[in-house]
What does this fold into?
Amino acid sequence: KGKTGCNSADKFGVGTSTMSDIKKNTDSILLYTCKLDSEDGSENRKILKRTKNELLEEALYC
It folds into this structure.
């Protein structure tokens, strides 16, 4: 049985708009976290911020 965003938001102590954003961006969040898990230093990262130029970022750090 599916859970509503309000129930999940209350459970995790976040706003309903945050839950909505997470649900909408689930695929990109999972892809980003998988990429971070495969790189060094990912445990120190606190925010999810994408680069403006992914090709440049990849060339610099890969």
Residues 5-61 form one domain. The helical segments are 5-12, 16-24, 26-37, 54-61.
